[in-house]
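Q: How do we represent a protein-ligand complex in a form that can be generated token by token?
A: Start from the inputs.
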Amino acid sequence: MSDRYIDFANSFLGQRLVSAVGLASPVRLERWQAGRLRPVEGPLLLGGGPLVGQVNHFASKLTDAVFSYGPEPLVATLWIPGQGPTLKAVVFDASHLLHTDQLKQLREFFQPLLRNLQHSAHLVILGRAPETLSDPFAASAQRALEGFSRSLAKELRNGSTLQLLYVAEGAEDQLEGALRFFLSPKSAFISGQVLRLTPCATHVTDWTRPLAGRKALVTGAARGIGAAIAETLARDGAEVTLLDVPQTKNDLEALAARLGGRSITLDICAQDAAPQLIEQLPDGVDIVVHNAGITRDKTLANMTPEFWDAVLAVNLNAPQVLTKALLDSGTLHDDGRVIVLASISGIAGNRGQTNYAASKAGLIGLAQAWAPLLSERGININAVAPGFIETQMTAHIPFVLREAGRRMSSLGQGGLAQDVAEAVAWLSQPGSGAISGQALRVCGQSLLGA
Ligand code: NAD
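Then emit the structure tokens for the protein with nicotinamide-adenine-dinucleotide bound:
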């Protein structure tokens, strides 16, 4: 469903009216286009502590315009507030801020550049995870980065985003993959997120086809977010197998054919779903995306046992049973990637969704609990938690709730299926083993549960 308010707010007349009446004015976000090569098209500014030196080693692969700003400049071209070009991307290393009085460097670095950002600029702050620091004051300073970055993300305008990445000792070589994602339009609908990178032995070798040679299974792939995930994984070089219920056979087969992949029609809740799936994946699989999901909304007072059971069966039980079977049978290869589609309802809760939110919170818990157990095999498991995404699922939400869902976020709009698909594709990459047991929200920094 299209968002008519965005079209209106960006029209000649609409722009004037919206600003005169003081309404929210969401901008059209810049998204990744087929054929694009560079993650950043425009000036990238680097500043801060020692980690930014690592970024500088590969910065010229991200863009052809790298600038530095701050007391210890890294690259030849200095950025001068008021004179330098407007910025498309910014990386600030705050890992060296270990005392309260050093935190003012955040204000000193960011303040001059906030009025010099281009449309849909992407900012990243680097730090060290507080729980890994023994000095309580240092840990407190690094935790302060979280409040700073989540707040600054809410102040950014014109489709700009900001994330905080806590980089563990030894995980510095994973920064390139993370920044290729978070500084590019692939992360257009992600903002105010905090992720932890840990050391990981695998790396991407070809950034134009990071998933080449990998076999991927996507459930619920006939339409919506699942179809976009299958398309994006195929774009990135994966051999895709698309799964959905038998009723979707025609759409599923047509999409699989277009992507050069295979299709499996199967109800993931069927008694024999696990053995059937294993049988249909004789060469095994490297990437499993549990995307199939349903809603059956009612307040708990009116919730029928059928509504409760159906949602828990599809959304939570099936991913648990199928993942275990794929692991135990060796169908899921070592160095595999498992991604479960959660929801911000599973983080914030949502009226009328006790069943759905329970299932989605359960998935986040599943990723958290399974991650350390799977790390020996090099397998990572993460949850992607979409906010309001424009699909058939959200088209059925009553108008007022739908409008509220769209506008109650820093970016003031719903996301596209492509936004979720890009996050899943990134977490599927070989280097993304640096992230496991985490939940990445793709929600435009929704106010729900933020
Ligand atoms: P959708 O309803 O458009 O598509 C879901 C797909 O899953 C359908 O093709 C359906 O046939 C399939 N499916 C359902 N039950 C199945 C079963 N038993 N076996 C096999 N396939 C089955 O939904 P969507 O909006 O694309 O959402 C995809 C995922 O993202 C879901 O898990 C959903 O909960 C989650 N999500 C969506 C949003 C949103 O705003 N759209 C927000 C948060 C989370």
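The chain has 15 helices and 13 strands. The first strand starts at residue 44 and ends at 48.
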